[in-house]
Amino acid sequence: MESKKLLIIEDDHDTAAYLIKGLTESGYHVEHAAEGDSGLQMASAGNYDVLIVDRMLPGRDGLSIIGALRDQRDTTPVLILSALGEVDDRVEGLTAGGDDYLVKPYAFSELLARLQALARRVQPDMQPTLLRVADLELDCLKRKVTRAGQKISLQPREFRLLEFLMLHENQVVTRTMLLENVWDYHFDPQTNVIDVHISRLRAKIDKGFSPPVLHTVRGAGYSLHAP
What we know:
The chain is of the alpha/beta class and 227 residues long. The chain has eight helices and eleven strands. It has a five-stranded parallel β-sheet, sandwiched between helices. It has a four-stranded antiparallel β-sheet with strand order 6-7-8-9, with helices on one face. It has a two-stranded antiparallel sheet with strand order 10-11. Strand 3, helix 3 and strand 4 form a beta-alpha-beta unit. It is elongated.
């Protein structure tokens, strides 16, 4: 199996050396940037499978790096590492565009498990490439969404969220399912990061259109379906 290519953006020398050694021994091809600006340059040009980004960095901070990448429509999965472990800190990191958030100190085995989850890639023939619910269409290959023929611009996370909901049309999708499959986030289902993204997505795909297709199932989760 081809080695996955990782970029670690971490300013602490000992932490970076520990990660590089452990991940290289685990079969990853690892590159390293020690501060934010060079990290962003490498991430933008490096075609990595996963990024590991420390939140607090000299120069450009970790969330700023992630925001800049998402503005470039770079959807490379990002694992945020941080000593900031409160719920609001994690929500801020995920809302900024991170795909998972691991609080320091952490077990290396957990880091590996999260990287493996982020690096998974669905084979093109395992799911449809064009999804439709009513007049809402999502083209998985062109990364394009339209409703009633009108183009809808989505951020990478919103696109992944909509894609997952459309793949589960007419089903109740729970918050836990979304955290594990859209965010690869395996704890604290009480975080409001899902509510924030659902609200933004609903405003884009339902506002000004009829009938609404994104529904809240009280006490259970969400469902995407036409009446």
